[in-house]
Amino acid sequence: MARPADLLVRKQVLDPTESFIVQAPAGSGKTSLLTQRYLTLLARVNKPEEILAITFTRKAAAEMRERILEALQCAADGRSAIEPYEKQTLVLAQAALVRNHQQNWDILTRPERLKINTIDGFCAQMVRQMPWLSGVGAPLNTTEQPDSLYLASAQASVASLTYSNGRFNDSLKAVLRAQDNNVDRVVKQIAAMLARRDQWLRHVFDGEFGAGQEQLAAAWREVIDEQIQEVSGALEQKFVERAISVGAAAAERLPADKKKSEIINLLGVKRMPVKGDAAIRVWRGLAAMLLTSRKPRKTANVNLGFPVGDEFASAKKDVKQLFDELAADDLAVDALNRLSELPDKEFDEQQWLQLQALADVLKLAAAELKLQFIANGVVDFAEVSQRASHALGCIDEPSELALKLDYALTHLLVDEFQDTSHSQFELLESLMSGWQIDSGKTVFFVGDPMQSIYRFREADVGLFLRVIEKGIGDFKPVYCQLSANFRSDPALITWFNRVFRQSMPADSDIALGAVSYSDSTAGCESFDSSGVSVRVCENQVAEAEQVVEAVSECLQRGDQKIAVLVRSKAHLAEILPRLRSQSIPYHGVDIDPLQHQSALIDLRLITIAIVEPEDRIACLGLLRSPLVGLSLAEIKALVQIDYEGSLWDCINDQSRISTLDQNARARLSHLNTLMSEAMVMRKKFPVQPIVEYVWHNLGGLQTMGGVGSSDIDSYWQLLDQLGSKGELSIADLELRIEKLAATETPQNDDVRVELMTIHKAKGLQFDSVILPGLARKTRSDDRAFLMWSEQLIRSSGKNRLLLAPLSGMETDAHYAYLSGQQKQRSKYELQRLMYVACTRAKRHLYLTAELQLDKNAERYQPPSSDKPLHHLWSALESEFQSSDLMAAVLPNAEDSEVKLRYLSDSFQIPQYIHMPWQQNSEGVVAGGASLEYDWAGDTARQVGQWLHNWLQVASDSSALHNIPSRKKLVGELAILGVTSSELDLAVDRIITAFSAMQNDIKLHWILDQKNKVYNEYDVSFVGSNGIERVRIDRTFVEDGVRWIIDYKSGQHLSSDLNGWLDQEQFRHAPQLNRYAEVLNKKHAMQTRLGIYFPMHASWREWEYT
Question: Residue 689 phi/psi, 5° resolution?
């Protein structure tokens, strides 16, 4: 490998005495650099816990930990290296091992001492350590799907209108009036605000609103004055002076009917005011005179104050010269537009009242969300982050925990720093609040602002730029930039540099999140690369065909990893069926939406019909579904327009049923019997087994179509989760169904095609990348009833929160200003998203777009500004214009006709498949081979239950080091039924188990798996005893092998532990073999089975055959 151009920089950033912020572009080996930095620090610290590495994903944390441990193991084994990077890493690892031996860390057998965590995991850890500081008195179970809680909180807030009085009631009415009394829209907006509350809650609503009002007014004043000062610098002072002189004269000549023009603001003005509303009005006047539709004017007329006549020729000449100068300066045009769009500093009374009403409603919604968290026993990540911040205290008044961490921590490393949100940034500031510059402490931030694409998670790339410029706390890290790209072919790197240098902004902007492009250099030798292929398509069908053709081309060429990357899963709608029709296997986990699949539609209809039998639409849909199969004519005969009763009364009306043929009557009779049973059972049992019972007995297995059995299992698990707390909410169900995606994809090694969103592809690399949908519109967001933005005030270095309510007035300048900023940020992020997508490619890149020819059919029309290709058009126009238009091969009309699938008339109604409640206690099947546990006493079972519960919620091996207190264990075991005389013994058993598990590498391996991991995995199937269900403690896939793990909490107190473990394996093997048999019937693959014994930190495994 040739020496990289940035080698000196890579050596510089390993200096353990200096702090750095490193820009590491695509393919630059960021994780490798972090690994070397960590090893360097490890060789110097007194304890490995002095180093804290924070990432934003579990995958990144696991990869960093794996790289570090692998390097240490290689050094311990005395292995050698060939590549310069590997040699250097090995040298650093050897030095770290020397320190390890000197300090007796025993790091290879105690890898948990490496403090590498996600930001969310770190927050949760702090909250658990200091529950009295964070305000948490119980364990935090974090949900990754909190949307239903946001929705329930919003609904509860709006529902309070019917029973509450006073200020909150009046505020809610005001909000509803501003939204045309559209309750659904208000509920959705409140739910969306709750999801992002970490950005606004801490700023404004901590105390009386009067204080918040003053804060907001001051924020607007500071931001506007700074914008005037910064943006006006793009316009030459002499140009502005001439423009004011010309404009002041023009204002005097305005016709009477044009006196409302903004040009009138220039009347009597002799010089530009420095700041304030006076400056804003002058800038608006200049923009009105010089610009039209945001572009420089070409001519001036009487309406602008330049009448016809020789005496005005000189004035027209002067203004024409201004027009021409402006037209030649894009930056000046942009600056003038931005200045003219600045709002007045002060809100009017109506805006303040609207904002106060919104504040009240959001306070109420936030309180309702707290109640939802308590009722459901879960919190979201934002809540954990807020409580962690609370536990740390503020920068000026650090808490006991912050002081403790200040003492314990010496070095902080943060990966993907460009994805930091404001709340996370403040958390880091609090963590460093006591750090002194000369104390030997260091920070190391690494990331790539050109790859910042997570604004929807509140990531603000401006924070990365801010640290470069201003630092963080008392630290001003040295800014370094890598350039070598070790991933992509040199030809592709040249193409990246050309295209994105033209497409991305020339200068970075902290406030708007603009990031200028930095060139990359080739860090590897040239591949056999065909470079970039551009294809223009007539429509989406043609584009899908071109994608499949490109995939086939890549497969024939021998590419091992091929990716089709899209911005939205919906963009795969035409591609997926064509890949299947060509028998091209692909991996596409969570990419194939299930909500429109026939089987899922049927399940949804059954669920609604059982939970809300008065829903006539759902019930009619069930009659028309393949499961019942009535024709439209039969439904019309059955349910006349004049029939207003229950649909279930209708299908019991013999006078109506008698008009149907025998087959239809039999189907209705069968449905009626099942639904009658379901209506009785739903008062006694959860809804999930009832729906499953009805679906199976209607012939659901025969109507699954292309839906896999594991996808049906996903629906059962969803119903089980939603119905576990009581009555199932159909609104919650609809929300969660939208996110269900097919899980069954081929698992063999021959699958070389990956389908995923661009966001999920970040950090990955492929031989070939195919990017369809470049000319498809981006989704436009609904107008939020509150716009907000956090902006850095450069003069003070502080954040300011800007808020603007949607008042219903189209001319609301504050709302329009923030909305315009959001659109500009979205534009910049879309450019970066294209950079991320393209730079996933190692050798080949395919770009496809649906373009229209102009009226002369000679050239393609430029894509509109709401399409991704628009932002690359200036660099790629010639390539697209020279591409032939690809037309679709349209199917025959007869072939394309949509045909409904039904069970045939010859289909035999199945014999009833019984559910567990219909069997006696001896016949219930709960997982195959039944096992007796009479040998275990009550206490042993209760300890086992506690350990089982704990292992199921452990997110990864880091949880092993947060041992619950003895007092807490006593309370939880007492709830499980452990008698007071047995409590001490039970607690001792758990503490003993923890002590053994903490140092067990095998359990670390089990808990740290991330691929296709399921805990307490319920799988149902039709067996000899009816519907059977097994529940698997843990299953995951590693290197193409499925692992099925069972936890057994028995304890052996005599000698010959190995003999006892062998006996336990023999006793439980039939149970695990049954699990493997069930999963392999659904999806066959190599499977290994394992039993973990937490009381002894012991393990047994075997191959399933």
Answer: -65, -25
Beta strands in 858-932 (DSSP E): 885-886
Among candidates 60, 52, 113, which has minimal Cα distance to 432?
52
- CA-CA distance, 683 to 675, in Å (whole number)? 13
Domain boundaries, the chain: 6-133+382-486, 144-195+348-379, 214-341, 542-591+758-885, 598-738, 937-1104
CATH number, span 598-738: 1.10.486.10
Cα atoms in the Cβ-side hemisphere of radius 13 Å centred on 866: 6
Task: Output the six-digit token pair for 813.
Answer: 């300048």
Q: What is the pTM of this model?
A: 0.76
Strand-strand pairing, 1014-1023 and 1026-1038:
antiparallel
pLDDT tens across 260-309, in order?
889 999 999 999 887 878 888 999 999 999 999 889 999 999 999 999 88
First to last CA, the chain: 45
Neighbours of 581 (CB within 10 A): 9
CB contact set of 673 (below 8 Å; sequence gap of 6+): none
Assess contact for 369 and 153: CB atoms under 8 A: yes
How does strand 295-296 pair with strand 291-292?
A: antiparallel
CB-CB contact of 682 with 915 (8 Å): no
CB 219 within 8 A of CB 804: no
Do residues 729 and 718 lie in contact, with contact meaning Cβ atoms separated by under 8 Å? no
The DSSP H or E segment spanning 1044 is strand 1041-1047
Amino acid at 78: G
Q: How many residues belong to the chain?
A: 1105
What is the rounded distance in angstroms from the CA atom of residue 731 to the CA atom of residue 152? 9
CA–CA distance, 88 with 90 (Å, rounded to integer)? 5
DSSP 496-546: HHHHHHHHS-SS-BTTTTB------EE-S---S--EEEEEEESSHHHHHHH
Q: What digits encode the pLDDT tens for the residues 111-167? A: 888 999 888 878 877 776 655 444 555 556 778 778 888 988 998 888 876 666 677
Residue 919: predicted pLDDT: 45
Residues 6 or more apart whose CB falls under 8 angstroms from that of 974 comprise: 980, 983
Record the tokens describing residue 472, joined without a space: 């963080």
Which 8-state DSSP code applies to residue 253?
Answer: T
Q: What is the DSSP letter of 685?
A: S
**DSSP, residue by residue, 688-717:** HHHHHHHHHHTTGGGG-TT--HHHHHHHHH
Exposure string of 880-905, with b = 16+ CB inside 10 Å and e = fewer, is beebeebebeeeeeeeeeeeeebbee
**What pLDDT does residue 375 have?**
82
Give the pLDDT score at 925.
Answer: 34
Interhelix angle 598-611/709-722, rounded to 10 degrees, is: 30
Long-range contacts from 555-562, C-beta under 8 angstroms, 24+ separation: 555/584, 555/752, 555/753, 559/752, 559/767, 559/768, 559/843, 559/844, 560/752, 560/767, 561/752, 561/754, 561/765, 561/766, 561/767, 561/768, 562/752, 562/753, 562/754, 562/766, 562/767, 562/768, 562/769, 562/770
DSSP 174-219: HHHHHTTT-HHHHHHHHHHHHHTHHHHHHHH-SS-HHHHHHHHHHH
6-133+382-486 matches 598-738 in fold? no
Q: Which residue has 């902004």 as its token pair?
A: 505
* CATH architecture for segment(s) 6-133+382-486: 3-Layer(aba) Sandwich (3.40)
Helix (H) or strand (E) holding 895: helix 893-896
CATH architecture of 937-1104: Alpha-Beta Complex (3.90)
Q: How far apart are CA 606 and CA 925, in angstroms?
A: 25
What's the per-residue H, E or C state across 660-671? Answer: CCHHHHHHHHHH
The residue ranges of the chain whose pLDDT is under 50 are 132-134, 207-210, 744, 747, 809, 893-898, 916-917, 919-936
